[in-house]
Amino acid sequence: MSDFAGMEDLLQDFLTESSDLLSEVDNKLVELEKRPDDKHLLNDIFRGFHTIKGGAGFLNVDVMVGLCHRTENLFDKLRNGELALTPELMDTILAATGVVRDMFTSLTQGRTPQAASPELLANLDAHLQGKAPQQAAAPQPAAAPAAAAPAPQAATGSGPDWNGLYNALLDIEEEEDEPEVHATAVVQSHPAQPPVAIAEPMQSLAPAQTAKAPQPATQQLASSTQETTIRIDTNRLDQVLNLSGEIGLTKNRLTTLRADVMSGKMDTPTLKALDEAISQLDLLVSDLQNAVMKTRMQPIGRLFQKYPRLARDLARQLGKDVELVITGEETELDKTMIEDLNDPLVHLVRNAVDHGVETPAERIAAGKPAKAVVELSATQVGDHILIEITDDGRGMRPDVLRKKAIEKGVIDIETANSMDDKQSLHLVFLPGFSTKDQISNVSGRGVGMDVVKTNIQKLNGRIDIQSQAGEGSRFSISLPLTLAILPVLVVKTCDQPFAVPLAMVREIIPIRTDQVQEVSGRATIVVRDEILPVKSLAALIGWEETQIPQFGVLMQSAEHSFILAVDSFVGRDDVVIKPLQNIRPRGVAGATLSGDGSVVLVLDMEDLLSSSNADTSAVKTSRLVENAA
């Protein structure tokens, strides 16, 4: 864009600051509709438009200057009492902010913004003159980005393509001079044989892997337009700098001690000093790791601030009166996760307004206030973030969901009869499922909620539903604070280590043959009066068991609990997970390096369970039943 030659930095600063300012203006406009006489809000909104107009004028973006000037004049008349705020006037103002945002998008993409439509400008001028606009179009919901499709997977079929991963590994090793971590995996050549650890063929890869910066798994979901900048508190950067300096001093101390040891100085004081220096380095590296993670943390309120306008516009289009209440905006989350959360939260907010809450007439008839309340909240619970979207609407009836699923061919009658109420609520996450009888431009096509669950799982999170007919629904999303470091439990099966997300682990129990019972041909164990199915890890990945599993990992997913049967376990660890780029078998979230340098696959248990062959799993776990008999 030649108009901005030499002004690229100024343009970027303007877009960053003004985009945040416009989001604040949108939220204040929604608040102003509730309190039209609030002079403080009117002044804030006026100043917001004035600031955006000033920046646009400095950059000579005349079409934006003209639009902001008209809108600014409207608010000048509103705060001086010369105009009264009406729903039609608010629709016109919000339409203007939407056009300004479109102009920001054009500037970001390197294009000259187009002028606002003559209809919008005419409506603004009519309101300024105190006249009714000639064309008062119904408001359209604020534009929301479509949910990203799940990351493509090279492998297809009912289970993980472990052999395909091994073949790809060999091809990459031969063709690439500097192999990436996606070339590492734990595989076997023949499924019928015990697995072979790939530590030896992959030894040459380990230095290249550890030398590269950690790449969070969410990069597979990142779009080409994803924001690449981040605002960081300078105090956090100062902490990183100080820790880096201390690590440098400790490194110098270790270099000196290394020279002493190499020269044969192995006395007790030298070894003690070496041990103290290594312990100090371990502590400093841990502190530096935490400090760097904090630089990636951003308040989730920057994401939440987009939704009041979205809820307001959609509610007005549907003839509903909805208030979106936001709490916990200061809760911090990894920036990359915040960006990838946008699409799922957009779907859930829209779903609450469209499906969840009733019209004012329906609410009054049911003895409820005419205005519905949708609450969006975020809280930190331990090392996880809990995000909840709650509405006080009509709620969901499990029997109706089962009936709809049968009608749409999503499940059969036999499956429906075997489902409890909790499982029935999770039917809304199945592809093609919708409770709407008619398709509209808002919903009814059976897309959206399945993408919500898929994207949440890609973030190593889980989503749960609670609903009461006539009282409302609650969607709860649990996410790790960051994807850069994942707490895992490392287990072993067939002498091969695998890592499972610690968030799913409830406890570890020994498996005794006298505890195993056969129910419908499958192995089960009763744990505190709860009958839990036993799923062999070897069976899930299609390997032949070399021994009867000795331990069970009691795991809890969003939909059910089960016991994962393994040979042994190594212990808990915090790992840097690397995505398997270009090739990713089902059931594999990524790879990591253990403390001894060996390569360990991190399993995506939800994906592995959903793609496993049920009959095969039953055959494999039957050995437990046979042994018990």
UniProtKB/TrEMBL annotation:
It is an enzyme of class 2 (transferase). Keywords: Kinase, Phosphoprotein, Transferase, Two-component regulatory system. Pfam families: CheW, H-kinase_dim, HATPase_c, Hpt. The modification Phosphohistidine is found at H50. Residues 251-483 form the Histidine kinase domain. The keyword Phosphoprotein applies. Its EC number is 2.7.13.3. Residues 130-162 are annotated as: Disordered. Residues 132-155 have a biased composition (Low complexity). Gene3D superfamilies: Histidine kinase CheA-like, homodimeric domain, Histidine kinase-like ATPase, C-terminal domain, HPT domain, SH3 Domains. Residues 3-107 form the HPt domain. InterPro entries: Bact_Chemotaxis_CheA, CheA-like_dim, CheA-like_homodim_sf, CheW-like_dom_sf, CheW-lke_dom, HATPase_C_sf, HATPase_dom, His_kinase_dom. It catalyses: ATP + protein L-histidine = ADP + protein N-phospho-L-histidine. Residues 485-614 form the CheW-like domain. PANTHER family: CHEMOTAXIS PROTEIN CHEA (PTHR43395:SF1), SENSOR HISTIDINE KINASE CHEA (PTHR43395). This is histidine kinase. It comes from Chitiniphilus shinanonensis. The gene is cheA64H.
